[in-house]
Amino acid sequence: MINIGLIGAGRIGQIHAENILTMPHVQVKTVSDLVPEKIKVWAESVSIPNVTNRVEDIFEDPSIDAVLICSSTHTHTDLIERAAVAGKHVFCEKPISFNIQQTKRAVEAIKQAKLQFQTGFNRRFDPNFSRVREWITEGRIGEPHIIKITSRDPAPPPYEYIKVSGGLFIDMAIHDFDMARFLSGSEVEEVSVAGAVLIDPMIGELDDIDTAITTLRFKNGSLAVIDNSRKAAYGYDQRVEVFGSEGQVNVQNQFPNSAELSNGQGVFKDKPQYFFLERYKESYLKEIKSFIDAIRCGDATPVTGEDGYQAELIALAAKTSLAEQRPVKISEMA
Amino acid sequence: MINIGLIGAGRIGQIHAENILTMPHVQVKTVSDLVPEKIKVWAESVSIPNVTNRVEDIFEDPSIDAVLICSSTHTHTDLIERAAVAGKHVFCEKPISFNIQQTKRAVEAIKQAKLQFQTGFNRRFDPNFSRVREWITEGRIGEPHIIKITSRDPAPPPYEYIKVSGGLFIDMAIHDFDMARFLSGSEVEEVSVAGAVLIDPMIGELDDIDTAITTLRFKNGSLAVIDNSRKAAYGYDQRVEVFGSEGQVNVQNQFPNSAELSNGQGVFKDKPQYFFLERYKESYLKEIKSFIDAIRCGDATPVTGEDGYQAELIALAAKTSLAEQRPVKISEMA
Amino acid sequence: MINIGLIGAGRIGQIHAENILTMPHVQVKTVSDLVPEKIKVWAESVSIPNVTNRVEDIFEDPSIDAVLICSSTHTHTDLIERAAVAGKHVFCEKPISFNIQQTKRAVEAIKQAKLQFQTGFNRRFDPNFSRVREWITEGRIGEPHIIKITSRDPAPPPYEYIKVSGGLFIDMAIHDFDMARFLSGSEVEEVSVAGAVLIDPMIGELDDIDTAITTLRFKNGSLAVIDNSRKAAYGYDQRVEVFGSEGQVNVQNQFPNSAELSNGQGVFKDKPQYFFLERYKESYLKEIKSFIDAIRCGDATPVTGEDGYQAELIALAAKTSLAEQRPVKISEMA
Amino acid sequence: MINIGLIGAGRIGQIHAENILTMPHVQVKTVSDLVPEKIKVWAESVSIPNVTNRVEDIFEDPSIDAVLICSSTHTHTDLIERAAVAGKHVFCEKPISFNIQQTKRAVEAIKQAKLQFQTGFNRRFDPNFSRVREWITEGRIGEPHIIKITSRDPAPPPYEYIKVSGGLFIDMAIHDFDMARFLSGSEVEEVSVAGAVLIDPMIGELDDIDTAITTLRFKNGSLAVIDNSRKAAYGYDQRVEVFGSEGQVNVQNQFPNSAELSNGQGVFKDKPQYFFLERYKESYLKEIKSFIDAIRCGDATPVTGEDGYQAELIALAAKTSLAEQRPVKISEMA
User: Fold this and answer.
1) For strand C328-329 and strand A66-69, is the pairing parallel, antiparallel, or unpaired?
2) In chain D, where does DSSP find H-type helix?
3) pLDDT value at position B209?
């Protein structure tokens, strides 16, 4: 039996706990949250025996093997370092931190302690994107030349969140930076951004953007382009295309059903699944399962701390490119 | 807390139990199976406390509210009648029986006992087919004129099963007969069959067919056509199209992913999901949830015993049409 | 230079003449029509030098190599027999006649005269259907088991036409009967029909139907099913699917463009091309080119008189099946 | 009758002449080509009476209303200015010239002479792209935020052509720059390029690139991104997507047929149409028809000299951005 401590029982924390419930020989033993009374009913419904507001109850419990860090981003690196000291494996939500040096130090601490670490880039486990990766790895498109990622949310987050989110690149596009690395198999060398505030001027006043086109140049010479928007009227838009020397592979959005209606006006179908909870349901399950498997078998996790660190470097370069209106080398950021 | 007794823990029985596990305030208390030792490990993994080979342990337990009948078809009607006597609600897999009179009597017994009864036509709960039904009900295609159902299995069942299955119509096409009624909103009046043995001559020697085109005429004058095959090289093929006075709606197969590869040879994607366990995963969950909800709220179940009876009548007419090579009226069968 | 005589300059006759205009070394020399004054402007615009109301002007002109018979169906066989006598190759629109014996005799007359004859089943030349045929012929779906043809018009013809059209089977479904033979590579043995009047009761009063499901059994044991409707709200619906022992191939409708709009309501695209003039534009061109090529090279035409005769036999069996409500053997009709 | 003079009877010149052949009341009266003997047979087949190697035979013929300039790019502006003097309307293939000042002067000369001028941006007439434009104009996606253009050729041109083509931006991407303006309804303000040589190092040695991602910023604040490749293994790849405040619209490639084959390996269909002759067949016809209509009715042409000039400005900015590795303002180029 593997025992898990969950730190932070917000939306994502709850998803992980519910997914663990369906797996044999693993349980969430303790959940720590700032407001434990709010999650008691939920914790009971998913058979978590201990609810606390003290993370020490997790770090000091020798029966707990691993922690899931799902609290606010600013708390992550401190918790990771405490986990390293306490000898707990770590699954940490993205981004690891807002500060590239803190991220580096936290990842290093876990590495020194020879513990498992997984960054929460769940999209790698999406059956669509993982099929794209497989076909690339099998050489079915030859050498990748151009990666195109479409990544648009159905609606902007609340202003309160935007203020503390770290901005579009660190909060939202970081998933796409990881996806670009995941699909490319090469490291990013240079980043160039065209950003805009087209959806809500208030987002601009909060010193963020809501629309961006980001071009990446990889060390192997290939290119990637990501377009982000905070608001797609038709819901979550998450597509990928990879063009290579021998062919091209792409994936489309997922739809709640395939029903198609033809009438005198035209042909109509329902819009895509609304947001990440629907679209990435399966990937969340596979993600946490891969972490448990890594602990159990001692294999490397499929998304390392280095992966979290590299994505943050790209986000940092993107912010710099936006501010200085020029292509920015990753090597300037490290 | 609703307590369930499960009779028969084969593939379908296990699916229902696993789905119930994820629902609050309902549990499978006892499972009865002919070979209890074979299912003990599984029963423990899904937290079923009691495993038995005596159905009496279920019928005589006053705390048990409902039974799921997932045993062999020839045992169904006897078990339904015992459930009626014992005052247990019944969920029964399709077909209810091989004998239309026994089916009628069993359904009537439950009705007299004022208990809930649901027939296991899970496909009604598939998000694709239910969206078709919704759009028809909303009048978006006007009056239905032609219903077309494609229903093909990836591979024929073993000969041993074919011998006792009741044949293609009662074992396999019965789902399609129910789908036709579900989508039409009218009752079938006449059935006409063209059948063939094209896949495996041994199926013909077992007095069954492996390929069929069945035409239905409804009381409202509209038509339906179903094509069945026991073996589609590309997996499970389950599609529906409804053509009406104002438009047409159709649904396609479900695919494991949307990845599409273009190269010098053409455009390629993975084949559809392999069989019913993958394709109807979501519909099985919704099906059993609807039964639990009906017990809890006292509402009618969404698929009644009458629905099971009507589908069997159509299957019987189809067998007769095949044997006598003529259109057969449902009224001849009742 | 090949010289053509066109008999009947209605919609179809004009299409053929316009297509011939674009081909080198062939010209329509004379057009004969009941009301020549109505077509003079058109004839000039497509460079046809002679306009007449006397078919003799065509049959007696020794420089004319071939005739296109595009006049009313009841005139066809007489014209074919005169062409046989006059030594002109014949392209004849479908159906060849309303009387199977007349059709047989006319086809035989051309055969005895060792002239070319092509029946106007243009759909065989559609790039979609011809690709299906190619893949079947290459063995890519193994042995065909089930052929499914959807064939629906955007609107019923005028009552005046319905009165003289010969009915849904001989006027409309005859194309589908030919398509079934074209794709199957086997001959039809038995026909079974379920027909209905669902669109317009007046069509019933004119002793026709507007909706039909026709099942065909081929000599090789395989099956086909055709569904016909006189009125699809969304335009011309012309699709085919062939299911075989090793796979399945299908073609969809053609659309005027591929634009797809996603918004808060769903996903929307334009309806399919409206009717045969748009959908079969390319097939009409290829059809008449194949006839000219056959004359030039002395090869067999790709759609023979026998093909026209066989499709009429099936139509006749379908009418009989509808009237007598039973499966009808083709051998009963010959 | 409108009389046309064709200058240059290469591939594109021949397409225009063949399309004019099908239109009433317009003819190509004279064709001028460097090697007239090579085109005599072709000219006869499309009924062009005069073949010459002297453009004066066109400019000095008072019966000629308009010229189609389809010769090499370096000859364009001189011919345009001679047409202005001779009082002939001009249809000119893209690009107008390799020199932005020459382009400006030539366009101005025609304007002063109050003659019609159309630049050969045929893609605007493609039924797919024009439907996208219509829906944008109708406000169906709200305000455009992001335009995405995919534009990939099936194979690089010969080295000899690359040497004189003006490079990827002026030869190939200029179509995409025009498409971006056509769809946006705003003018480009800034261009930023990431280019690479990934297909053939020799292209790099010829001082060109074969792969590019170009980001455009429009005056209205919106963004566009274009990805170009000289070699797509699966043929011509020409797609567009426009994302706006209220929705998104996109168009896909065109396929030679819709046949889809499912078997044990997966689902397969033919690759898209190979190159521009197939893909843009319809747009070439509509393009030249629009030019003839403009002459006939005196309306403005749908693609003006200004449109040609603006696209060249963007190409020039793209070349500069590539060379200097920075975002470049259009205002720097004018």
Assistant:
1) unpaired
2) 11-21, 36-45, 56-59, 76-86, 100-112, 127-137, 159-165, 168, 174-184, 201-205, 276-279, 281-297, 305-324
3) 98
Summarize chain A as % helix, strand, coil (round to 5): 40, 25, 35
The residue whose two tokens read 């190979």 is D274
**A201: cis peptide before it, omega within 30°?**
no
Chain A partners of D321 at a C-beta cutoff of 8 Å?
none
Whether pLDDT at D21 is above 90: no
* Cα angle B178-B182-B184, degrees, rounded to a multiple of 5: 115
Percent of chain A with pLDDT over 70: 100
pLDDT in tens, D204-226: 999 999 999 999 999 999 999 99
Ranges for all domains in chain D classified under CATH 3.30.360.10: 124-283+310-332
Q: Is the CATH number of domain C127-283+310-332 3.30.465.10?
A: no
List every span in chain C annotated with CATH 3.30.360.10.
127-283+310-332
Q: Does A257 touch chain C (CB under 8 A)?
A: no
- Residue to test with chain D: of B237, B269, B270, B273, most D Cβ within 10 A: B269
Could you tell me which CATH number the domain at D2-115 has? 3.40.50.720
Interface contact flag, C267 A266, Cβ < 8 Å:
no
* Secondary structure class of B333 (helix, strand, coil): coil
Is A261 within 8 Å of B254 when comparing Cβ atoms? no
CB contact under 8 A, C196 and B223: yes
Q: Is A258 on the interface with C (CB under 8 A)?
A: no
Are B251 and A263 inside 8 Å of each other by CB? no
Q: Cα–Cα distances in Å, from D38 out to A262, D5, D222?
A: 52, 18, 49
| D268 has a chain B CB within 8 A of its CB | yes
Determine contact, residues D36/D58, Cβ cutoff 8 Å.
no
pLDDT in tens, B245-301: 999 999 999 999 999 999 999 999 999 999 998 999 999 999 999 999 999 999 899
Nearest CA in chain D to B272: D266
**Beta carbons of C253 and C238 less than 8 angstroms apart:** yes
Which residue is closest to C140 within chain B, CA to CA? B233
Domain with CATH 3.40.50.720 in chain A: 2-115
Amino acid at C142: G
Q: What is the pLDDT of residue B153?
A: 97
In chain B, which residues have their Cβ closer than 8 Å to the Cβ of A43? none
Residues 198-237 of C with CB under 8 A from A: 233-234
**Every domain range in chain B assigned CATH 3.30.360.10:** 124-279+310-332
Question: Percent of chain B having pLDDT more than 90?
Answer: 94
Looking at CATH, the fold of the domain delimited by D124-283+310-332 is given as: Dihydrodipicolinate Reductase; domain 2 (3.30.360)
- Give the separation between CA A233 and CA D167, rounded to whole angstroms: 39
Q: Which amino acid makes up residue B308? A: G
Q: What is the pLDDT of residues A219-238, one digit of tens each?
A: 999 999 999 999 999 999 99
| For chain C, percent of residues with pLDDT exceeding 90 | 94
Mind telling me how many Å the CA of A241 is from chain B's nearest CA? 9
Fold classification of B124-279+310-332 is Dihydrodipicolinate Reductase; domain 2 (3.30.360)
- Does the N-terminal peptide bond of residue A95 adopt cis geometry, omega within 30 degrees of 0? yes
- Residue to mutate among A1, A124, A263, with most B CBs inside 10 A, is A263
Q: Of C235, C301, C290, C276, nearest to C12 (Cα)?
A: C276
Q: Is A246 strand, coil or helix?
A: coil
% of chain D exceeding 70 in pLDDT = 100
Phi-psi label, residue D317: left if phi above 0, alpha if psi -120 to 50, beta otherwise: alpha
